[in-house]
Specification:
Blueprint (H helix, E strand, L loop, with lengths): L4 E8 L10 H16 L8 E5 L3 H5 L5 H7 L8 E4 L5 H14 L5 E9 L5 H9 L7 H23 L13 H17 L3 H15 L13 H6 L2 E3 L2 E2 L8 E10 H6 L6 E10 L8 H13 L8 E3 L5 H10 L8 H6 L16 H4 L4 H16 L13 E11 L2 E11 L2
Helix pairs in contact: 4-15, 8-12
């Protein structure tokens, strides 16, 4: 393999709800921004990896998505690889681009992801989330969960001497139920509390007030998070990522290309890992992938100065903080409640606001994580800057297989 791979440019658009725009438009904005950031012309890009998960569901663009989106924005005639890996699509596109440069196939490549999840047809949005699970077994799993939830509510009502609340149809994706199951197991095994989950959510909402590109930019207290509408106990709405649209991109280059196009803002990629989960056995894809990333980068969890992890819910962050080795398994709740993952804490996590507040347009999320970390390592994060940030880590999971994520991508980056 060739020498080091660098991120020469990184960009994202403001995440939000864009009913009046299409994927081509979102992609074009991110492409313009990343080209501007790295100071290159479009013809410097030798290959591209395009990330998207739900375009086919929403408008039937099931194939050649990258060719359609990029050619509409003046980038065509080059190899374009289409990437779909559920919520890990963006980071998987980044990994594909990194692999090609590392192998010496290209000197300068693009990874770009765009997604439109917000729709007036809510059924299409929900179908997109279902597609990230084994569709032949998800119905049985959710039926079992629904029965467990009914019994829990009946028991709670009996203890309070009241009638159980009426059943409410839908209202959230099955992934929220999946995270709720994990949170309950963690609470039962380690004594984790709902308030600790609320502390994580409040932290991320408050971080997003310092990020103009976040979908949500309003603060939240722990009490406000707890008082919000219940989605799937113990998760309230404020603990869950919103539905939204967005795009993000990165330009990666070889060491030789960087010497020919010198930049004091290029960020080095120390490790890029892509793994898959297990249908049977333990839910270890996160810790397994983190171990490989640390080994490849020749660092440990104690060396990470700032991290972006996959917090589709507050419990997602708690789980991944433990799996990345930032604290022992079972101690993620107290770790967060003490402020160890806040700005100024031991290991600031999700300084961007995370998926919970920055937003989670699936195909763009992993590349938005890269953007935040590049911004931190360049020292350009403004009021949310982690002082002296030297090494950063992203963890981005996608879909579910068995008890864990189906896809897992981890990156470790180093400052210029």
């Amino acid at each position: 393999m060739s020498g080091h791979v660098y991120i020469l440019g990184s960009a994202m658009i403001k995440f939000g709800k864009y009913l009046d725009r299409n994927i081509k438009s979102l992609t074009g904005e991110a492409l313009d921004l990343v080209i501007e950031d790295c100071g290159l012309a479009r013809d410097a890009i030798q290959a591209a990896w395009f990330s998207n998960s739900a375009w086919g569901i929403h408008t039937f663009q099931h194939c050649i998505r990258g060719q359609v989106a990029l050619s509409a924005n003046g980038l065509e005639g080059i190899p374009i690889t289409n990437v779909e890996n559920a919520c890990a699509s963006g980071s998987t596109a980044f990994h594909g681009a990194w692999t090609a440069v590392k192998a010496g196939l290209y000197d300068c490549v693009l990874a770009v992801g765009a997604e439109k999840l917000y729709s007036e047809d809510r059924a299409k949005t929900m179908q997109g989330f279902l597609a990230g699970m084994d569709v032949e077994v998800v119905a049985d799993q959710m039926a079992l969960f629904a029965e467990q939830e009914r019994k829990r509510k009946e028991k709670e009502a009996k203890e309070k001497g009241i009638e159980p609340p009426p059943e409410k149809p839908g209202g959230h994706s099955v992934f929220m139920d999946w995270y709720a199951i994990g949170a309950r197991r963690h609470m039962e095994e380690y004594g984790t509390t709902q308030r600790q989950l609320a502390a994580i959510a409040a932290k991320n909402h408050n971080n997003s007030t310092l990020n103009d590109l976040a979908q949500y930019t309003f603060p939240q207290t722990v009490e406000q998070v707890l008082a919000d509408r219940e989605v799937s106990w113990p998760l309230t709405r404020a603990m869950c990522a919103p539905i939204g649209d967005g795009a993000a991109a990165a330009v990666l280059c070889s060491e030789g290309f960087l010497k020919r196009h010198p930049s004091g803002r290029a960020v080095k990629v120390l490790a890029s890992i892509l793994q898959s989960g297990n249908l049977q056995g333990p839910n270890d894809v996160s810790s397994r992938s983190a171990g490989k990333a640390y080994e490849a980068a020749a660092v440990g969890p104690e060396d990470i100065d700032v991290a972006e992890v996959h917090d589709a819910t507050a419990f997602g962050e708690l789980h991944q903080v433990e799996q990345m080795g930032f604290c022992p398994v079972g101690e993620g709740g107290p770790f967060a409640e003490r402020g160890e993952t806040a700005l100024g804490g031991k290991i600031p996590v999700n300084t961007s606001g995370g998926l919970i507040s920055r937003g989670h347009p699936i195909g763009a999320s992993g590349l938005a994580m890269i953007y935040e970390l590049v911004t931190q390592l360049r020292g350009e994060a403004g009021k949310r800057q982690v002082p002296g940030a030297r090494i950063a880590m992203s963890e981005n999971g996608g879909g579910t297989i068995g008890r864990g994520e189906a896809a897992m991508s981890i990156h470790i980056l180093a400052r210029p």
